[in-house]
Amino acid sequence: MILRFQRRSLLGSRFVLLLLLCLWILCTLGSSVEACQICLPLPTESLADRILASEHVVLARENPDRPYTLRAIRSLKESASPPPQVDLFLDSATRRRLSLDANLSVLCGWFPEQGEWRRLLLYEKSVAPVVDEIISQSSAWREHPERRVQYFADFLTHEHTALSDLAHIEVARAPYAQLKQYADRIPRELLHEKLGNPRRVEWHSLYILFLAQSEDPRDQEFIRQEMADTARFGLSIQTAAWATALIEIDGRDGIQKLSELYLGDADRRPEEITAIHAAFRVHGNNGSVKLRDRVVAAYGKLLKKQPELAPVLADDLTRWERFDHAAAFATLLATTSPDFASFVTIRNHLRSAFSTMASTAASEN
To answer: I need a labelling partner for 88 at 20 to 30 A (CA). Which of 107, 168, 221, 316 fits?
Structure first.
């Protein structure tokens, strides 16, 4: 829900000064040509992605004429052009398993852009219905991506590791508002067990967000304590998840607590501040109107604490149609020399602010 800018206080002298400052910034500043981006090291490609990206999907077993190689025995997904011959090496361990089970095969996909076949999965009875569903629902899932997440959520605790991992990726990258709906798929006791397992650390963020949906006071206190410890020791791993969880359970008080811990006078590493911004952004995008007001207020502190975040903060605020910090952005452009991409993003925010404030002023007269 977008909350529109409605501040009458800007119609006085401060409003006029801000308009003049914005106009001066937009008309006079230059720029340089540099850009940067932040990458998150999380697993992002699922088995379903690979199946859907394949032009051909076949089942294969050992080629009796060429030991230790595979040949196609059945096609599951085809295109207009015939598939090239499967030419993949068959390792000893898989070869042994195939020799012991005539119903077992290897799922392979042809990727035309790379011009190669790839092994996707050891195809057995438990995964067959899932593979069939992925192929048959391809078009429907493109039209309704939420149905794809809904389908895979039921496999989060599946005993087959490949299906469980598939479900984890599909659910973890879903929009936060949808992701929360599937927290009950993993019992709270199992969530705590998984959070204590370092071998599942890549999924700890998902488990933390699920745990935040618990109404058990013990879980809520656990989240508060973990967030406090994370801040006390200056950690950056899972910080965004713990911060998001804290806001989920404590709302505006959670935002205030995070602001005290990270946006005050204490020295914080850029990674920590970036993680806190990620949590604020999640709730700014998905939270209530009152929660967004607190998030927007915290963005002013973020901008002051870490000016390097200015372009992403400006982009968020423009999408939310909130221009509470336009003066701070204008001052930033007037006193610094951001790279070209940052300059354009902040300039667009100021243009939107100018247009909105001008429209508000006209409607009030």
So the answer is: 168
Cβ-proximal residues to 20 (8 Å cutoff; 6+ apart), any chain: none
Q: What is the pLDDT of residues 260-319, one digit of tens each?
A: 999 999 999 999 999 999 999 999 998 778 899 999 999 999 999 999 999 999 999 999
Of residues 277, 340, 341, the one with CA closest to residue 313: 277
* Contact yes or no for 233/217 (Cβ under 8 A): no
DSSP code string of 186-223: S-HHHHHHHHT-GGGGGGHHHHHHHHTT---HHHHHHH
pLDDT digit string (tens) for 106-152?
A: 999 999 999 999 999 999 999 999 999 999 999 999 999 999 999 99
Q: Which helix (H) or strand (E) holds 74?
A: strand 70-77
Mean pLDDT of 223-231: 98
Helix residue ranges per DSSP H, 144-288:
145-153, 161-172, 176-179, 188-195, 204-211, 217-232, 239-250, 252-262, 270-286
Residue 311: how many CB atoms within 10 A of its CB? 21
Contact status, residue 243 vs residue 263, Cβ threshold 8 Å: no
First to last CA, the chain: 27
Query: CA torsion angle for 211, 212, 218, 220 (degrees, to 10)?
Result: 150
